[in-house]
From TrEMBL:
Alphabetical list of Pfam families matching this protein: DUF8094
Name of the protein described by the UniProt record: Glycosyl transferase
Renumbered residue ranges of the record's region Disordered: 110-147
Residue span(s) of domain DUF8094: 314-612
Comp. bias intervals (Low complexity): 126-144
Regions that span the bilayer: 197-218, 269-291
Amino acid sequence: MRFVWAVVAFVLAAVMIGAGIAQRTVFQGPRTETTQLEVEQEAPYTLIDGAVLNRLPGSQTLRAQADGTIFVSYGRTADLKAWLSDSTYNEVALDDEGAAVSTFVEPEQTQPATGADAGSADAVTEPGDAEAPPAEPAAPRSPAGSDLWLDEFQQDDLLIAPLQLPDTMSVLVASDGVAPAPRTISVSWPIANSTPWAGPLIVGGGILMAIGVFLYFLGIRHVRRSRGPRRKGLPMPVTEPIDLAVESEDKGVITSTPRTRRAISGRRAFVAVPAVAVSALLFTGCTADAWPTLAPTATPTPTASLIVPEGQQQPAVTEAQAERILSRISATVEEADTNLDEALAATRLDGAVLAERTTNYTLRGAIPDQAPLEKIPAKPLEITLPQAQDAWPRTVMTVVTDAADKSASIMYLTQQDAWSPYKLTYLSSLEAATEMPDLAPAWIGAPLVPPDLSFLLMPPDEVAAAYSDILNNGDDSEFAGMFEAEGDQFRASVTTDRQARLDEFNKTGSTTGSLTFGSAPGAFAPIALATVESGAIVAVNLNETDTVKPTQAEAVIKLTNNATVKTLAGVEQSSTGFTTTFSDQLFFYVPAQGSTEKIRLLGYASNILDAKVIK
């Protein structure tokens, strides 16, 4: 009976293992589905719409093949179309039947709508318009390195890019922006053909096989112990025992030496080793998708949520995108600082930051020991607050911390249009004990606050003038009560520095000259992004001036020990005096009207800007 059960176990094991292996091989089917994207006309760019990428569920794998360089990037569909708006390109989208078809697109406008024109009816010039003829295609340009892309890939001859994009994002395929884009393009999706019972069947068959081997071994042992069937028969003749001590040629020798344990155990091992080897071999072929999912579904943990205002647009950048942009800015400015290259710096700097850098290059070119300005910090990026804006210009606020020296920098980046890179326009150091207001997360973004918004405690375009008045008049200023004085290190340092310089000047020059100080709004417009509590982080530019004049007709002002002013003014002395200008970049938190808080200074930076002879 043991042999019968052993045979049954072997048969069931063979069936189960065969069924499990068949599920993983002949019955499994293809693992991916691939769609070839056909492009009829040659163009320097090919746009693959997000609907094509999400025609099937799951991640996407893009494959492009051509001779030479292949470039692939992805980003928001609206951003890609804005970048391509002045170029000819092929757009691959789904038709009404769900098939991917290609359309040749010609330029509709010379540039995307910006600023206030973004929502106007005539922001986009249509082809054939009587007043505005169709725009000519823009000059060829490489798509590599654009700040619009969320990520990009570049390779020669063959490029395979694994993607996982929603339908709101699209893919741009090109070569170098001049040669036609690759025409051999395909998209693949994984097919959900898991075999959750293959693993249990194979393992269960292995267990049954082991049981069959065990039953077979028991059957053999039982037969050997019973030494065959016992039957009743005729009486046997009486026999006598053989005397083993006497050796004789007439007597047969019967040995009674039993078999050794080693021989028996060797045979047992011969039976057990194949079973273990077969089981190990079967386990190696079982992957995660060959098993059923028995774990319970995780219960979501409730978290605090923010309500996105109705109609709010998409954030300008993602956190990863902002980090990459800032790294590019830092690297470019570092190279410009090394070579004193103002033109290179201007590709990534603007506003007060560029003006101060330009002055520093002039001084370093003339004064050997003139120190360079501090490098642009790039990481780690602690805060990213992008403007919620689909059109242009776009603004991003970032805060970069340095744990080593316990410092932090706050900055505003601005992109003027779809083809321009982001430029650093405001940069300041955060005060040591700065407490930032509540900000929206990067995936929501914040609206840009208009300069004349009256819902704040003070409109952004009035902050610079009010704070300048405080620097000039101190507590006697009419705006002193609106700004928080405690913790304002910049105001304290300006007051202390002015008094120290005036005392030093009065020691030798009070009888023949005068030194006066002033502060006024700078040349660059403020930038403000909204906070969660309806306030705003406002960046402004101030100019501080030191004016030295002779008070006697025969007196002159000499720059004997002032190489900085001498270099910028271009003279060593003047009978009319000199005006030295310092540029200040200040970040304030301006609360909403009705708040009990005051306007707080968050960070500041001050560098020399210019020096001139008074005329």
